[in-house]
Structures are given as structure tokens and as C-alpha cells.
Amino acid sequence: MITWPERLNVDRFLLRDRLDEGLGDATALLLDDCAVSYAEVDAAASTIGAMLGDLGVGPQDRALIVLPDGLAYVAALFGIFRLGGVAIMLNPGLTVEGMAAIIRTSRASATVVHADHLALYREAVRSGEWQPQELVVDDTVRLSGSDLATVDTAATDPALWLFSGGTTGSPKAVPQSHRSLANTTQLYGRGALGLKGDDVTIAVPKLYFGYATGSNLFFPFSVGASVVLFPGPPTPQAIVERIERHRATVLVTVPSAVNQMLSDPDVAAADLSSLRLATTAGEALLETLYHRWKDKFGVELLDGLGTAEMWHIFITNTLGEVRPGTLGRVVPGFEIKACDEDGLEVAAGEVGRLWVRGQSLGPGYWEDPGQTSEAFRGEWFVGGDLISIDDDGYVTHRGRADDAIKVKGKWFRPQEVESTLLDHEAVRECAVVAVNDSDGLAKPVAFVVAEEVDEQELIDWVLSHLEPYKHPRRVYFVERLPQTHLGKVDRSALKRMAV
Questions:
Q1: N or C: where does the chain have the smaller number of CB atoms within 10 Å of the terminal CB?
Q2: pLDDT beyond 80 at 98
Q3: Whole-Å CA distances, 241 to 207, 230, 263, 271, 275
Q4: What is the pLDDT of residues 420-465, one digit of tens each?
Q5: 434 vs 204: which has the higher pLDDT
């Protein structure tokens, strides 16, 4: 366990310490039209921080970010940290209702919002009945020349609000401290991933997703590496074009994007030889996807698991020690166990609920004591993930307690059926959920993005590969799968659609 100082501000830990190390001229950001040095990022953070300060944002005040990925986003984030404030990152693609809910919950003092998102944001403010002050920016940051001092904060002071994934219900706000951000940066970014100063990272998820905030900003910044950012959609073509252009060494991705890259014929000819590794998290990585990726690109794919409540990834595969079909092993510095419903640890190989502890643990859910007491148990966080841990310490994800399916007294993971469906040549994306039939019994149904295939063919395909009780009773064809505010498959929405 790391001994962290009592006073800590991640603005200094992640950014200003790089200047003190003589890396001011090193490339921090690789944008589509220019490269930005660490010194220039520092100056931009002071500029936006000073503007927010003029709006009254100070220590412990919350400030929202509604921006596309780019220099302004990074400057706003570090400008808020510099003031001792608390950053809350919103997905600019949220619905008005979704954005309004977060604005209302946040009761933020101010918002840094891009001019392109201003109309949607203002509509959300009107419907959300909470009106932060506005700092409207565009694609450029006009430096003021000010050198804003970094506020001296306690390591346990909040720095960032994260929202749980919301895959099976409404997302909950989790305040995370300066120590939490620094701790995972040290243990996972510098430790498990082994990031170095000559790395160039690029991400499919955008910075509003905590997974990307860490892996494609905080972790590379902590070692003086370079970060590729761009504002547009992360299509397979957009990603591989920038990997080739910037000779990226680390790709941060998610299973759905892995599947899209494998399904895109134009990507097959891409030169990904600069990559030394790729990471995936956020959703379950089906083993079939891992092998297809490795066979096609020859790049190691490191699957892992993290939560908003623990800030980021704490279980991962590592280079040279990947075991396909598993999440890898616990990141040194964290502790995990699999427990039954009474909190007693189960035997190796048996399925139990995931318990985790470490210095990245949040204090609980904002203004939700009931959910907090259920999930935060002393030093431990107890979420909905079901896992098994083998004798070698490798962790296999067994689904979530709230989406596992029980048919005729037998439990199974929807990922088993999803993996089988994805093996069918016509299926591009899929998700399986349980819905109750007219007798109140849970039955699996599948939602599929596919071409030139009918329902019965896919049902027969599953029946020929899995035990009969696991086959989907219905297959619904959709143009796309609904997503949560973090871009994960929204299983709650699928259940509503089925009903």
C-alpha cells in the first residue's frame, strides 16, 4: 500500500510535476491540426481556471464540463483541479432529460460548455431547474498569460464526480478524491500497464468516460507521454487513421469497438504495427472476440475490470500473462475476494459477489445513504459483479447479479449466448436479457444487429452450440443497441423494449 501525503492536488501530480521535471517542451497532446506541449497545456489550464475563478468557482465547488475532446477539455479539467474545485464530466451526446438529471444532481456552480453544445445544454438547464453560470468556449483557447497557483488541497478532498455505468438502472454519483486518482494512476497506469514517456495513447471512448479520462489522459500525463485526442466520432476508420499517423503505441478500447474494427473490411489493411498493447474494459470481452482480434492484428488485448466506485481498473491481464476469457489478476495494491450473500469468502473456482478494497475507494453515493450502506461496507466495495477466482488468482467474470438469467432452476450468463451469436457470420452486435413471460417466468431474448438472417436461423444456431435452456425465445432485430451515458449497452432499455 502506498503512503500518500496528507496534502495532494492531482493538478500538480499529473501535470505541473512534468514541468518541474523539465518536460515543458515535450508533446502532451496530438490534435488533428497541431501538437500541444505540456507547458502550453499548463498555460491553457491557468487561463480557463482563472475564468472559472472569476465566476466564483473555488475550493470544493463543482463545475461541469460539456466539451468535445481537445485542448479546451483538458485545460478545463486541470483548471478546475487547480482551483481546488470538483469536475463533473457530461457526455455531450446525452438526451436533454439525461443531461438535466445530472445538472440537477450536481448543483454545480458553473459549466464550461462548447458553443456547439450550448443549445442542448441550455434546454437541459431549463428542464432541470438548476442554473450554473456559463463559460462558453470554442475550439481554441486564447491564453491570458496568467499563471494560476494550484490550491493546496487535502488528499481526501473530492476532485472528480463519476457516475456508475447505469447498465441496469439509473446512474449514481460517486465523488472521487485526489488520492484516488493518484493511487490508480500509480498502481494501474504506471504499474500494471507500464506506461513510459515515449508512449503515445489513443482511445475509442471519449474523455467524459472515466475509463478514458484515466487511460488516455491521467496515466500518460503522469509519465510525460503523448495523448491523441480528436472531437469526432471514434469510428474504426477514424481510430486506425490516427494510429497510423501518430504511430500510437497504446490503444484504449471497449469490446463493442473491438467487434466493429473486426467487422470493418477497410480496417483489415490498416498498419497497427506501432501498437504494443491495447486495453479493453467497460463491458465483458467475449473470448471469441479476443482470439479474432489477436489473430487479425497480432496486438495483445488486455481485458480488465474497474468501477466508478473504485475510480478505475483494479483487475487486469498484463503483457506476457494474458489468460483469454478472464479479467486477469488483481492489480497489486488492491485486494479482492469472491463472497457469498452472507459475506463469507467462497472456495477457489466458485462463483461469488466481487468484494474489493484499496485506496481508490470512494466515500459512497452522493445523497443516497441507502445505496451507500448496501454497497460500501467499511473498507470494502460490494458491487453487482459475480466472479470466480482460480488457484492462480485469475478472475473470471460471471455476469452481474442483476442480469444473470435463471431458466428452469439453472443460472447462466447472457455473455455465453452473446458470444455464440457473434460467431454467426451475419451477426454484427448483440445483447441478451431476461424478460418475464405471461406466466411470470424469466426467459432469455436477444437483440441483434445483423444482415440477411432470420429469427429462427439464429435460434437454431444457439440450440446447436449451447444447452437448450439457454437459447433465446425471441430474437429482435434492431439498427443499433441502446447505450447508457457511458456508451455501454443499456440492458434496462432492452428489457423495456422487449416488454
A1: C
A2: yes
A3: 19, 12, 16, 9, 13
A4: 999 999 999 999 998 887 777 788 999 999 999 999 999 999 999 9
A5: 204
Q: Whole-model pTM?
A: 0.85
Picking from 101, 50, 41, the residue whose alpha carbon sits closest to that of residue 75 is 41
Cell of residue 104, nine digits: 440537477
Task: Give residue 14's region: left, alpha or beta (phi > 0; psi -120 to 50).
Answer: alpha
Rounded-to-10 torsion of CA 235, 239, 241, 247: 180
Note the pLDDT tens digit of each residue in 133-191: 999 999 888 877 779 999 999 999 999 999 875 544 456 899 999 999 999 999 999 99
Nearest residue to 384 (alpha-carbon basis) of 239, 169, 98, 81: 169
Q: What does the block give as the cell for 373?
A: 450502506
Tell me which residue of 453, 454, 455 sits closest to 445, measured CA to CA: 455
The pLDDT tens digits for 277-305 are: 999 998 888 898 999 999 999 999 999 99
Q: How far apart are CA 335 and CA 344, in angstroms?
A: 15
End-to-end CA distance of the chain: 48
Query: Mind listing the pLDDT tens digit for each residue in 100-109?
Result: 999 999 999 9
CA 225 to chain centre: 20
Per-residue HEC secondary structure of the chain comes to CCCCCCECCHHHHHHHHHHHCCCCCCEEEECCCCEEEHHHHHHHHHHHHHHHHHCCCCCCCEEEEECCCCHHHHHHHHHHHHCCCEEEECCCCCCHHHHHHHHHHHCCCEEEEEHHHHHHHHHHHHHHCCCCEEEEECCCCCCCCCCCCCCCCECCCEEEEEECCCCCCCCCEEEEEHHHHHHHHHHHHHHHCCCCCCCEEEECCCCCCHHHHHHHHHHHHHCCCEEECCCCCCCHHHHHHHHHHHCCCEEEECHHHHHHHHHCCCCCCCCCCCCCEEEECCCCCCHHHHHHHHHHHCCCEEEEEECHHHCCEEEECCCCCCCCCCCEEECECEEEEEECCCCCECCCCCCEEEEEECCCCCCCCCCCHHHHHHHEECCEEEEEEEEEECCCCCEEEEEECCCCEEECCEEECHHHHHHHHHCCCCEEEEEEEEEECCCCCEEEEEEEEECCCCHHHHHHHHHCCCCHHHCCCEEEECCCCCECCCCCECHHHHHHHHC
Rounded to whole angstroms, the Cα distance separating 4 from 149 reads 22
Which residue ranges form the domains of the chain, and what is each CATH number?
10-327 (3.40.50.12780), 408-498 (3.30.300.30)
- pLDDT (0 to 100) of residue 324: 95
Scan for cell 470554442, then name that residue.
138
Contact by Cβ (8 Å): 254, 280:
yes
